[in-house]
Write a structure and sequence with these properties.
Number of helices: 5
Largest sheet: none
Helix content: over 70%
Number of domains: 1
Shape: elongated
Strand content: under 5%
Low-confidence stretches: none
Order of helices and strands: HHHHH
Oligomer: single chain
Radius of gyration: 15 Å
Structural class: mainly alpha
Mean pLDDT: 84
Length: 103
């Protein structure tokens, strides 16, 4: 029987591998999700772990761009678009997490 990891630990694996493989548009998040899903141990934990890195990265980029731009409205729009781009990667990440959690 495989030892289960925490949601935070599996999320960290997903985040690091996806960041390393950023140059592979669909395969990078898919591989990161698969590895994180294997670390999570089951499908439910893997799904929860796959949403966490996307939310954290989206919020981080939103805060970063909205504070660095001098005009608050432009920063808000730029930050929101960056968050939407990051959240668009959650699809392959979640598919990989479901496959990894099921195996």
């Amino acid at each position: 029987m495989r030892q289960r990891s925490s949601v935070l630990g599996a999320s960290l694996w997903m985040l690091v591998i996806t960041a390393i493989l950023f140059w592979l548009p669909v395969a990078g998040p898919l591989i990161g999700g698969f590895v994180g899903g294997r670390k999570a141990g089951d499908v439910g934990t893997a799904i929860a772990a796959s949403v966490l890195p996307a939310l954290l990265a989206g919020v981080f980029f939103w805060l970063l761009t909205s504070t660095l731009v001098g005009v608050p409205l432009i920063g808000l729009l730029a930050g929101t678009s960056a968050a939407i781009l990051v959240l668009g990667q959650v699809g392959p990440l979640m598919v990989g997490a479901i496959i990894g959690g099921a195996l």
